[in-house]
């Protein structure tokens, strides 16, 4: 079942649109795909940033133990 990109509710198909049962958001198929692509892109950027911060911390931690 499709999930709403705004609230995570269930999307139902009516005519050529997907409508959220919870918040009432109404999107065409292409609008729905674009909304989820944007969310995935943002999520990937956040994951990359977290990974980079962990690696920088590890590098700092390892260098501080040499003293």
Characterize this entry briefly.
With 67 residues, the protein is α+β, with helices and mostly antiparallel strands. It has one domain. Helix content is 54%, strand content 16%.
Description:
The chain has 67 residues and is α+β, with helices and mostly antiparallel strands. It has one domain. The protein has one helix spanning 29-64; strands at residues 11-14, 17-20, 26-28. A 3-stranded antiparallel sheet has the order 1-2-3. A hairpin with a 5-residue loop joins strand 2 and strand 3. It starts with 10 loop residues before the first strand and ends with a helix. 9% of the residues are buried.
**Shape designation:** rod-shaped
Report the order of strands and helices.
EEEH
The figure for the number of domains is 1
Separation, N- and C-terminal Cα atoms: 56 Å
Individual helix count: 1
Radius of gyration: 20 Å
Structural class: alpha+beta
- The proportion of strand residues reads 15-25%
Mean pLDDT: 88
Low-confidence stretches: none
Q: Give me the side-by-side strand order of the main sheet.
A: 1-2-3
Share of helix among residues?
A: 40-55%
Largest sheet: 3 strands, antiparallel
Please report the total strand number as a whole number. Answer: 3
Give a quick set of tags describing it.
alpha+beta, 54% helix, 3 strands, 67 residues, 16% strand, rod-shaped, three-stranded antiparallel beta sheet
Give a topology summary:
Blueprint: E1 11-14, E2 17-20, E3 26-28, H1 29-64
